[in-house]
Amino acid sequence: MLNFDYFFVRKVMFVKYAQGFIVLPGGFGTLDELFEAMTLIQTNKTGKFPIVLVGKSFWGGLIHWIQEVLLEKESNISPEDMNLIKLVDTADEAVEEINRFYKKYMLTPNF
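^ thats the sequence. predicted structure below, dont judge the formating
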């Protein structure tokens, strides 16, 4: 069991050893960890790993906003940043995305 005095350290360690994120519908904490992971990958502070959002109806509005506002209207992210996340509806699709990511790099996750 690990205890952290500071929340940001917990998040960094959470991402440091991740081989993939499967993100289920959640609240502010889920969004915080999702965007932390995306930011660390985007800025090359950690290696790339798959991020899969499960629930198209839940996440669709956020993805649309990221695409329309952050990318197209404000140009605050690069078009490649949209490739950091995949949107699926089922557990099987989530596993497929993780496997697809690792096959592309001729690797396999160690779980």
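The chain has a mean pLDDT of 91.
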